[in-house]
Amino acid sequence: VTRSRKIILSMMLALTFLVVGLRSHQWLKEIEFPQKSRQVYATIAEYGSRLYNYQARLRMPKEQLELLKKESQTLENNFREILFLIEQIDVLKALLRDVKDGVSNQSWSTHGDPAGQQDTTEEMLNLVNYVLKKLREDQVQMADYALKSAGASIIEAGTSESYKNHKAKLYWHGIGFLNYEMPPDIILQPDVYPGKCWAFPGSQGHTLVKLARKIIPTAVTMEHISEKVSPSGNISSAPKEFSVYGIMKKCEGEETFLGQFIYNKTGTTVQTFKLQRAVSESLLCVKLKILSNWGHPEYTCLYRFRVHGTPSVHT
């Protein structure tokens, strides 16, 4: 009897422990598993965030390097322009110094006379204003009938293709998706600064300009930047030999030779050439042919081209 009781008690204890174990296992399953799953999700998110930050750090030096390159190039261009302006200011200072010395040499005539000194001061101020006005004025002092804002335009059918520069792209969030080049009609606009030019491949090209009105042409003007403000330090892409032709009828007729010239890259940036052949009839279109440049092997760059003459009586 005693042995059977022990067996029964052992079985009851075993069943009790089994029931308690099953309930504990169910409770742990309900409590711990969701916590472990949340921990796993949190761990995955943390490592994903670390991976993204690491990739961002890898991309950041390249973006900063491109930004630094652009900023350094801009600063270099600004520095060259500042140097050019300083030279102009030095010329103005030298001119004013000479004027002042001349006035000082003649100061005996106005010494002790306040009215005379006041007149001298006014004359110097007028001279300064005159010099500044001349610096701001157009150097050519002739009407430009190839000016876009006055109604002139480029005829694409009679113009060479533009140079394709794969380094010049439009960017969106750091991704270049479209090549960008200046259009040919940029040469008919007055704003001239480094990079704002129309480039065509090679050293020979042409463009057809429809003038703002019919004129009897007398001269043309070619303009390029100077080496002092060029980002590359040279202007080998500037045009050298070029010729000009007039077209009588609707920009499609026979071409009439008007002259052949050489743009001197060591001369002034704005150079005007008198046409070598006079025409009796008024023209509406002028063709510019570039025959050579100053040595650039890939492209030629035109900044501004002007046409001068006498307007026709019949508009």
Please explain how this structure is put together.
This protein is an alpha+beta fold. The longest helix has 104 residues, at 2-105. It contains two helices and eleven strands, in the order H-H-E-E-E-E-E-E-E-E-E-E-E. The strands form three sheets. Strands 1, 5, 6, 7, 8, 9 and 11 form a seven-stranded antiparallel β-sheet that branches. A two-stranded antiparallel ribbon has the order 2-3. A two-stranded antiparallel ribbon has the order 4-10. Helices cover 40% and strands 24% of the residues. It has helices spanning 2-105, 114-136, and strands at 153-155, 169-172, 175-179, 198-201, 205-223, 241-247, 255-262, 270-274, 283-290, 299-302, 304-311.
Mean pLDDT: 77
- The helix content, as a percent range, equals 40-55%
Instruction: Characterize the largest beta sheet: strand count, sense, and whether it forms a barrel.
Output: 7 strands, antiparallel
Give the SSE string: HHEEEEEEEEEEE
- Label the overall shape: elongated
Radius of gyration: 40 Å
- Number of continuous helical runs: 2
CA distance, first residue to last residue: 138 Å
Ranges with pLDDT <50 over ≥5 residues?
A: 169-173
The percentage of residues in β strands lies in 15-25%
Structural class: alpha+beta
> How many E-type strands?
11
Main location: membrane
Subcellular location: Membrane; Nucleus inner membrane
Membrane topology: Single-pass membrane protein
Protein name: SUN domain-containing protein 3
